[in-house]
């Protein structure tokens, strides 16, 4: 007995190979996505690149337009604001379920040693990267104003941070603060050596030995009555610095009345903010 099988409509099937996107970043904060869609696409169906904020309900849809055989392009201008966070990327065709994008080649050369003017009063950063599951995500920051950490120098029990502020001037009352994350009432004030928008801050780890755990680093460019500005390193092409940037820790000895030997050293948090960790060691 012969049974006639129904004709399969291959145009309605989801491709087994996921779509990928090459990304090019520009120095102003814009991104261009070139999407390669396995099996092609139907021009009559509207297509979008969907960015979805992982920690909220925000979404941004960017139209995808053909630029070559099997390739679609979407542009995220620097003028389109992205709230700070991680934005997962998808391809959306008509009313079909959006499909997660895989990373292709990321051209981030324009982000290396980037130095925005700060004239807008804020710094916007978008860095595409591959997640641990191999998907394409965009890490976005929006800081207004911003204090960029540059060179870090460890010498003995001191850390010297060189940096620059954007979107605000360093006034005569400008100073720095190291704030204990475990005991917010503990704040160590530091002096700044300033020259225009640039600053140098030398931190003596021994001043932080009263409380172990993380100490977050802040600038007060206008003094105690002005805004607090988190010290971070954002103006490069590294989306997640915590596991990549490593700095030596310094032994502080044993504080009076304590049997614990302490050490301290700088590190970058999961948000690329600069902090110092004080901890007991064997």
CATH overall fold name of the largest domain? Immunoglobulin-like
CATH class of the largest domain: Mainly Beta
Terminus-to-terminus distance: 80 Å
Strand content: over 45%
How would you describe this protein?
- It is a single chain.
- This protein is mostly beta strands.
- The protein folds into 2 domains: 19-143, Immunoglobulin-like, CATH 2.60.40; 146-281, Immunoglobulin-like (Sandwich).
- It has no helices and 22 strands.
- The strands form 3 sheets. Strands 12, 13, 14, 15, 16, 17, 18, 19, 20, 21 and 22 form an 11-stranded mixed beta sheet that branches.
- The chain starts with 19 loop residues before the first strand and ends with a strand.
- The model is unreliable at 1-11 (pLDDT under 50).
Q: Helices and strands in order, then pairings?
A:
Blueprint: E1 20-25, E2 31-36, E3 47-53, E4 59-63, E5 65-68, E6 71-76, E7 85-93, E8 99-100, E9 102-107, E10 123-130, E11 136-143, E12 146-155, E13 158-166, E14 175-180, E15 187-190, E16 193-195, E17 198-204, E18 213-220, E19 229-232, E20 250-253, E21 261-268, E22 274-281
Parallel strand pairs: 1-9, 12-19
Antiparallel strand pairs: 1-2, 2-6, 3-4, 3-7, 5-6, 7-8, 7-11, 10-11, 12-13, 13-17, 14-15, 14-18, 16-17, 18-19, 18-22, 20-21, 21-22
Précis, in short:
This protein is mainly β and 282 residues long. It is built from no helices and 22 strands. The N terminus is likely disordered.
Key structural traits:
Transferase; 282 residues; disordered N terminus; Immunoglobulin-like; mainly beta; 2 domains; 11-stranded mixed sheet; single chain; elongated; 6-stranded antiparallel sheet
């Amino acid at each position: 007995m012969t049974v006639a099988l129904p004709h399969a409509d291959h145009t309605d099937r989801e491709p087994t190979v996921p779509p990928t996107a090459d990304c090019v970043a520009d120095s102003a904060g814009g991104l261009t996505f070139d999407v390669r869609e396995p099996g092609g696409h139907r021009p009559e169906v509207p297509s979008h690149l969907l960015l979805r904020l992982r920690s909220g309900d925000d979404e941004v849809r960017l139209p995808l337009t053909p630029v070559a055989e099997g390739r679609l392009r979407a542009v995220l201008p620097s003028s389109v604001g992205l709230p700070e966070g991680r934005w997962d990327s998808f391809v959306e065709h008509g009313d079909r379920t959006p499909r997660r994008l895989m990373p292709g080649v990321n051209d981030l050369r324009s982000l290396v040693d980037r130095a925005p003017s700060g004239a807008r009063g804020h710094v916007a950063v978008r860095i595409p990267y591959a997640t641990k599951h191999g998907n394409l995500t965009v890490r976005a920051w929006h800081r207004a104003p911003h204090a960029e950490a540059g060179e870090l120098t460890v010498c003995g029990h001191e850390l010297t941070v060189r940096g620059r502020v954007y979107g605000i001037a360093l006034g005569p009352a400008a100073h720095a603060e190291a704030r204990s994350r475990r005991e917010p009432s503990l704040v160590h004030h530091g002096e700044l050596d300033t020259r225009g928008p640039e600053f140098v801050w030398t931190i003596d780890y021994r001043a932080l030995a009263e409380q172990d755990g993380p100490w977050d680093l802040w600038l007060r460019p206008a003094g105690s009555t002005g805004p607090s500005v988190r010290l971070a390193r954002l103006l490069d092409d590294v989306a997640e610095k915590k596991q990549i940037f490593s700095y030596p820790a310094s032994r502080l000895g044993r504080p009076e009345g304590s049997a614990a030997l302490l050490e301290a050293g700088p590190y970058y948090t999961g948000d690329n903010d600069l902090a110092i960790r004080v901890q007991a060691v064997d």
